[in-house]
Amino acid sequence: MNRFVTANPSKCIGCRTCEVACALAHSDGAGVEGLAPETFKPRIRMVKTANVSTAVMCHHCEDAPCVNACPNNAIVYRQHSVQVEQERCLGCKNCVLACPFGAMDVVTVPAVRQFAGMTLSLGVKAQAHKCDLCVGRDAGPACVSVCPTSALTLMDRDAMDETLRRRRERAALEAAEVAA
Amino acid sequence: MEKHMAVCPYCGTGCKLNLLVEGGKVVGAEPLNGVTNEGELCLKGYFGYDFINDTKILTPRLRNPMLRRSRDAAFEAVSWDEAIDYAAKKLGEIKAKYGPDSIMTTGSSRGTGNETNYVMQKFTRAVLGTNNVDNCARVCHGPSVAGLQVTLGNGAMSNSIPEIEHTKCVLVFGYNVADSHPVIAKRIIKAKERGAKIIVCDPRKIETARLADLWLPLNNGSNMALVNAFANVLINEGLYNKEYVANYTEGFDEYKKIVDKYTPEYAAAITGLPAEDIREAMRIYAAAPSATILWGMGVTQWGQGVDVVKGLSGLALLTGNLGRPNVGVGPVRGQNNVQGSCDMGVLPTEFPGYQKVTDPEIRAKFAKAWGVESLPDQIGYRLTDVPHLAETGKLKAMYIMGEDPAQTEPDLALVRKGFEAMEFVIVQDIFMTKTAMFADLILPATSWGEHEGVFSAADRSFQRFTKAVDAKGDVKHDWEIISLLATAMGYPMHYNNTKEIWDELRELCPIFYGVTYEKMEGLGAVPWPCRDLDSPGSKYLYEGNVFQRPGGKGLLFATEWRPPKDQLTEEFPLILCTVREVGHYSCRSMTGNCAALQTLADEPGYVTINPKDAKALGIRDQELVWVSSRRGKVISRASVTDRTNKGAVYMTYQWWIGACNELTIHAVDPIAKTPEYKYAAVRVEAIADQVWAENYVQQEYAKLKGGLSNAVTRATKKAPAYA
Asked: Where do the CATH 2.40.40.20 domains begin and end in chain B?
């Protein structure tokens, strides 16, 4: 099963700590001082409506519409998750339109090449931009570790099984109440 | 990488954290398992440290003492010797000419720590010879202190922060916990998961209202009517604890007479709430085996703040929710050390440890310890009195430490006039601020992260914080600066470190006596009262239901509801209520210099408005709008949201361009002198030319930032004569 981060709206307080942690975890070590409004592109987004506050991010679907929509096989299943091979991304945005959760975006970043000790500009490079579960980060997804109300959880097979077990138990108890 | 233990400088929760340091620079923060935060931090705790590094995103750090010899001159960098001599001479002259009561000082409820605040009030009382010392509790929880001291005998939270998640009912009144104290919000969520009922009284659909079992969206300005109606239901439905009331309270008959009129039906007309919801709230509250009331600025920032605080404590007394674990009354302190500045006596009425300046024995004790013949016996001025006192010539000099009243006080035009009327203003800060622009002398201090000390969390817990990095520039610790000034004024004062100061004050304050540096080592937290060296302190107050009042009983108090001061008219038809947002803190001198926090929210800030009001005014979401009151006019950005109630708009108070305090009214509570920030009549207008408006915001913002920054660079560019 693909792993994914899930948000519990009954715990979220809309504080956006997850957004900053996400941007920092993908800043190549630039730290907070590298953050600026123009370049702030977290892969997790806090959404606030009249009645709901919660974070929205990639579900790492088992049969992912983004993977199926990509014409250049840039989106792949790897390490029990959906990952983007950025060098293959064309920036065509098929994946953006295919994702039912609004969790995929296409962003452009400055493209550069090193040549004889100089940095040469190659214009811009498109990137399909979404949650990568912070693969490679020892402590796991940064958003999950910082959420002050523990509204975010990393769901893997074990966590999912535990959730299912609790749900079934509750359903059984409710059924018993109805019968009684 | 080095790690240095600190306590977060942003709210009263008192979260313990490590500052991560590389090459003499703070590069990160990680949570520690402190008593109040248990391994959690919030947005500001995690990402609010880089202001220490002088990012200059909003304003520059101060590096040298700066003086201007006349108000039309520019600041020039001067040596510490010159700065201190100048200040001592000027203050001495003003004291000799107009008397000690013509001078006022402030403590700081922010990063400086308790020891500095102790030294500041000692300087004010023993050296200047006045009780004119105050702190920004005046504009926040002043009414909680004043109200609870009368009804229960102690102005602080009765119970500890960790207990909140073990209570069976949380009554949240005028308190946006998600934005003010995110880590305490987690306690409320955990309480709910453990089966507690959550009742929220707030006109807005704040995050906690979303999670509540019952949300009472009362009309803005109707608090007292609702609290009286709550008491009415508890009494008339027989829900109150008769035995507790008989044994541990007084004033019931008088109390009952007043609240009798406030039937839920009567209160419904004032509060706009269904009478049945008022009843339901009290049925839930009274039925809970343990219940906690938490409140914030929605209770205190009113012309009738003290009365409502007393009323809320009455609900706890009626139901016996005091004097044991997991219950109580909680005025949750907003600034990280506003509890501490009150503890340290930077109040015009009290010495450290809540010992009254009007008590001759107490005065004699302090006079003896401080080696002076006598200490002033008249209570001093309040911070909110300052503009009026300055304009009428009673106040001639002010020494402001670590506060920015030109941003945070109500009716800023009035505040500016006050500063201009004064003969001598000293500002001691870590940043160039709007207030510092009014100063004659600016004294640069070390920041949180550059010094050590003790903070008081909102639940009375004393905790130590340590130094992480060396300060850059020619700056000194706040308490060193004050000591130098005292010495120059003929009162030799010298401390080697904060522990020396702490031990001096411990000896003078019986309720802090047992709180030693050793006990606070590491993650140690010691809640006062702690009278003995072998005591762990008091997690909750009023054990055995003994209240710190003559006779030991709690006082039931009610009074008639009074409507707010400002008048809604056709010209100013909407209510403006000032609030806060999670990413910025106080005047924003710290958070505005943090890259992450400034990335999430920048000028001109938002005015939130209900879709119906917005539609009627032709305003769309995210458009710039004018907001004006009888006192001023500012530009802000509309956030059209159903979470805001119809008829009211809300602005956060840290913006320079969208400065809501240009609009607020200087109407204060008669006892606490806390301003009515929560109710000003305003008009909101659409702006047809949005391109012009966007440019205007950018230009004005650049002008303000440039003005502050230039004042510092021009002063320091000139090679100082002493260098």
From this structure: 574-687
CATH 3.40.50.740 spans which residues of chain B? Answer: 66-140+345-511
Quick: pLDDT tens for B344-392. Answer: 999 999 999 999 999 999 999 999 999 999 999 999 999 999 999 999 9
Residues of B in contact with A38 (CB under 8 A): none
Contact between B380 and B599 (Cβ < 8 Å): no
Instruction: Say whether B675 sits in a helix, a strand or coil.
Output: strand
Residue B723 pLDDT = 46
For residue B219, the model assigns a pLDDT of 98
**Domain B574-687: which CATH number of 2.40.40.20, 1.20.1200.10, 2.60.130.10, 3.30.450.20:** 2.40.40.20
Q: What is the pLDDT of residue A177?
A: 87
Regarding an ipTM greater than 0.90, the answer is: yes
The CATH number of the domain holding residue A163 is: 3.30.70.20
Return d(Cα B539, Cα B524) in angstroms, integer. 13
Residues of B in contact with A19 (CB under 8 A): 600
User: What would the two tokens of residue B56 be?
Assistant: 């200059």
CB-CB contact of B230 with B281 (8 Å): yes
Instruction: Inspect the interface and report whether the beta carbons of A32 and B186 lie closer than 8 Å.
Output: no
Domain count, chain A: 1
Task: Read off the tokens for B242.
Answer: 């008769």
Residues in B touching A50 (Cβ below 8 Å): 205, 641-643
How many Å apart are CA B79 and CA B437, to the nearest integer? 19
Residue B177, φ and ψ in degrees, nearest 5: -65, -35
Tens-digit pLDDT profile for residues B614-657: 999 999 999 999 999 999 999 999 999 999 999 999 999 999 99
